[in-house]
């Protein structure tokens, strides 16, 4: 099955926790704190795999999490870094952050993309020793990794897109001018997935042609199969519009031509401006009057026209030569502009966000990231409480309480831990 759009969730690994430990060695008295730092969590990395042509691998697995960093240990032993998780995608995959609908990466080149960074490892208690606090009995937990919900959308990379109604000869044309082997039969919608073929024009010269499944009138509104694949035409540098010039199925070729272009305009008005060459196929079944009528109509629009009979390669060389000549004058395949804002700075969330509400003169503070810190606080230890105070200050919670109107002696509630506020 051809899958070209999926939604997944990715999470970087959590950083390892710092260790609380004290040096113990024979003949060494009061060795001091030597708790090591936790290791950094693994990253989520996207990488292009040229052997993939669909997103089908994501149909059944939608959640990806990198390995957590290891905890620090005594004797200043640092925790091991979590292993990165590499996710392979086909070339041309566009990655969006779902909550903001922001394009964050276009996997068209060979560069890796780090989608979710692992959390930093926590500091061991060795970092908290001072001349006046020589035996700190607390350490810092590792930070959680970044977490995002993403949409992966495959937009095929092709220089030329073949357009036209079903059964007009697109698959036949790509099969005779390239090594592609699409299904070919005399019925509609033989092609149900896009087919790519490389057209060689001599040593060091080639281009990629895409056979897009047949469009019908109303495709942009979801009718038929073509609406699923119109997005794959967006990257094309130019279009070759195949028309059954003989009207062998009772349709008028001019009406066919106009109908397809209308669908392009509805789907994306910019696609109408793509350079277009028109090929009148099935000339063996058409009269001279039919061919000339359609040729005149197309050329009056200022477009190049070629008569072909794809199965016997009549006129195909001239068509392909014209396509190659046109491509030589066009810019490279379109790459999507990605957000200049670093992923971690998108307004989707703030890992240190918090809420404060006042109920019965009690200031209730809620912040998920604060829970593991509270669990490690020794409320009978002055130094540990000082550490909590620094966390509340650096995170902005203290300033927010002041803005809410808190005064000395008011009660603050941190997940059922209550204390009096002192400025």
List the helices and strands and how they pair.
Elements: E1 5-11, E2 44-48, E3 63-65, E4 85-89, E5 93-97, E6 102-107, E7 113-116, E8 147-154, E9 160-163, H1 170-177, E10 195-202, E11 205-211, E12 238-244, H2 253-267, E13 276-281, H3 288-300, E14 304-307, H4 316-327, E15 355-359, E16 362-366, H5 371-375, H6 382-394, H7 397-403, E17 411-414, E18 417-420
Parallel strand pairs: 1-3, 2-4, 9-11, 9-12, 12-13, 13-14, 16-17
Antiparallel strand pairs: 1-8, 2-7, 5-6, 5-8, 10-11, 15-16, 17-18
Give a summary of the structure in a few sentences.
The chain has 423 residues and is α/β, with parallel strands linked by helices.
Verbal overview:
The chain has seven helices and 18 strands. It folds into three domains: 1-154, GTP1/OBG domain (Spo0b-associated Gtp-binding Protein, Chain: A, Distorted Sandwich), CATH 2.70.210.12; 160-327, Rossmann fold (3-Layer(aba) Sandwich), CATH 3.40.50.300; 355-420, GMP Synthetase, Chain A, domain 3 (2-Layer Sandwich), CATH 3.30.300. 17% of the residues lie in helices and 23% in strands. The longest helix is centred in the middle third of the chain and has 15 residues, at 253-267. The protein has a six-stranded mixed β-sheet with strand order 10-11-9-12-13-14, sandwiched between helices. Strands 3-1-8-5-6 form a five-stranded mixed β-sheet, with no helix packed on it. It has a four-stranded mixed β-sheet with strand order 15-16-17-18, covered by helices on one side. The protein has helices at 170-177, 253-267, 288-300, 316-327, 371-375, 382-394, 397-403, and strands spanning 5-11, 44-48, 63-65, 85-89, 93-97, 102-107, 113-116, 147-154, 160-163, 195-202, 205-211, 238-244, 276-281, 304-307, 355-359, 362-366, 411-414, 417-420. It is an alpha/beta fold and 423 residues long.
């Amino acid at each position: 099955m051809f899958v070209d759009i999926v939604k997944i969730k990715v999470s970087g690994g959590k950083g390892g926790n710092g260790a609380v430990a004290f040096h113990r060695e024979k003949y060494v008295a009061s060795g001091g704190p030597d708790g090591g730092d936790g290791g950094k969590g693994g990253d989520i990395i996207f990488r292009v795999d040229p052997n993939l042509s669909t997103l089908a691998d994501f149909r059944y697995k939608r959640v990806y999490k990198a390995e957590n960093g290891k905890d620090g240990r005594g004797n200043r032993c640092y925790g091991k870094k979590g292993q990165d998780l590499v996710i392979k995608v086909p070339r041309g995959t566009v990655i969006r952050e779902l909550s903001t609908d922001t394009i964050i990466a276009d996997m068209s080149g060979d560069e890796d993309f780090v989608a979710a960074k692992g959390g930093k490892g926590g500091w061991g208690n060795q970092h908290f020793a001072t001349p006046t606090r020589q035996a700190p009995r607390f350490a810092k937990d590792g930070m959680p990794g970044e977490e995002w919900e993403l949409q992966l959308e495959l937009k095929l990379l092709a220089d030329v897109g073949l357009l036209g109604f079903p059964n007009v000869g697109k698959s036949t044309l790509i099969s005779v001018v390239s090594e592609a082997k699409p299904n070919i039969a005399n019925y509609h919608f033989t092609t149900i997935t896009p087919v790519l073929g490389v057209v060689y024009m001599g040593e060091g010269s080639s281009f990629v042609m895409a056979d897009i499944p047949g469009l019908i009138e109303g495709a942009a509104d979801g009718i038929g199969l073509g609406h699923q694949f119109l997005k794959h035409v967006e990257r094309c540098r130019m279009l070759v519009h195949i028309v059954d010039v003989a009207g062998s199925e009772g349709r008028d070729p001019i009406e066919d031509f106009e109908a397809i272009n209308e669908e392009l305009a509805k789907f994306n008005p910019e696609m109408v401006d793509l350079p277009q060459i028109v090929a009148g196929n099935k000339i063996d079944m058409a009269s001279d009057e039919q061919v000339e009528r359609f040729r005149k109509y197309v050329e009056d629009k200022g477009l190049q026209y070629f008569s072909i009979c794809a199965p016997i390669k009549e006129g195909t060389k001239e068509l392909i030569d014209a396509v190659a000549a046109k491509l030589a004058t066009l810019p490279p395949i379109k790459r999507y502009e990605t957000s200049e804002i670093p992923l971690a700075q998108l307004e989707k969330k703030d890992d240190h966000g918090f809420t404060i509400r006042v109920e019965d003169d009690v200031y209730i503070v809620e912040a998920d990231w604060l829970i593991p810190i509270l669990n490690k606080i020794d409320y009978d230890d002055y130094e540990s409480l000082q550490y909590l105070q620094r966390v509340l200050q650096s995170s902005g919670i203290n300033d927010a309480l002041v803005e809410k109107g808190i005064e000395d002696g008011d009660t603050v509630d941190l997940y059922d831990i209550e204390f009096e506020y002192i400025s």
